[in-house]
């Protein structure tokens, strides 16, 4: 059911980082919860990062809506990373999303540039035989051994992602001897094993975490995730690694610098 819920004129001000006209169609008829959500966004901006949202009862009275309608609006803002729920405490204005460049920059370097302390919690370190797809991506034989590293990504001790990396054992036979798996693999490859990265192919899509992934990252299985698939190559064009990175959609965004093809 929809209801006409005209917003105050100042709500329609131009915002370059938001939807045009706040997503309100010209006829002004929108679901009640969405009108409340738009109002909440302005309240969030005025409160500032870390501030507590007023109580559910107070907000429902302020917007003249039911608590069910209010919860739907708040729930969407939580899913989008604008608000954070804290068990037994309340709902708070979330910090800005972390921004990771889509470039040959490690997760560690990307976080450090934002003044965030990166870390990793090691889940799996193992040798596996390459299946057909992995063998093709790494330019090795089907069944050849690969190193598989699975690590939870942390930012200021907050779990924000899960990363699985695969590398050829034949190419990097001493990797596990020189690598501290809680630290940057990229820095180990370039600093200790002499790899010079040349390029990478990356694909980004949205997914829902599996139950295991949600448990490892410590998030709601219904929360949208950003999934990145990357194959990195050295300066000679030889594959170095294949990486599957899963990031929390409420905590991450990505940037890329685009240039025209020549």
Task: Write the topology of this structure.
Blueprint (H helix, E strand, L loop, with lengths): L1 E3 L24 E3 H16 L8 H8 L3 H13 L3 E4 L3 E4 L4 E4 L5 H6 L5 E12 L2 H7 L6 E11 L2 E11 L6 H4 L6 H7 L5 E12 L2 H7 L6 E11 L4 E10 L3 E4 L7
Parallel strand pairs: 5-12
Antiparallel strand pairs: 1-2, 3-4, 6-7, 7-8, 8-11, 9-10, 10-11
Description:
With 262 residues, this protein is α+β, with helices and mostly antiparallel strands. It folds into two domains: 2-93, Arc Repressor Mutant, subunit A; 98-255, Chorismate lyase (3-Layer(aba) Sandwich). Helices cover 26% and strands 34% of the residues. The protein has helices at residues 32-47, 56-63, 67-79, 107-112, 132-138, 175-178, 185-191, 211-217, and strands at residues 2-4, 29-31, 83-86, 90-93, 98-101, 118-129, 145-155, 158-168, 197-208, 224-234, 239-248, 252-255. The protein has a six-stranded antiparallel beta sheet with strand order 6-7-8-11-10-9. α1 (32-47) packs across α3 (67-79) and α2 (56-63) crosses α3. Residues 1-13 have low confidence and may be disordered. Pfam families: GntR (PF00392), UTRA (PF07702). It comes from Saccharothrix coeruleofusca. GO terms for molecular function: DNA binding; DNA-binding transcription factor activity. This is GntR family transcriptional regulator.
Oligomer: single chain
Q: What is the CATH topology of the largest domain?
A: Chorismate lyase
The domain count comes to 2
Shape: elongated
Summary, kept brief:
This protein is α+β, with helices and mostly antiparallel strands and 262 residues long. It has helices spanning 32-47, 56-63, 67-79, 107-112, 132-138, 175-178, 185-191, 211-217; strands at 2-4, 29-31, 83-86, 90-93, 98-101, 118-129, 145-155, 158-168, 197-208, 224-234, 239-248, 252-255.
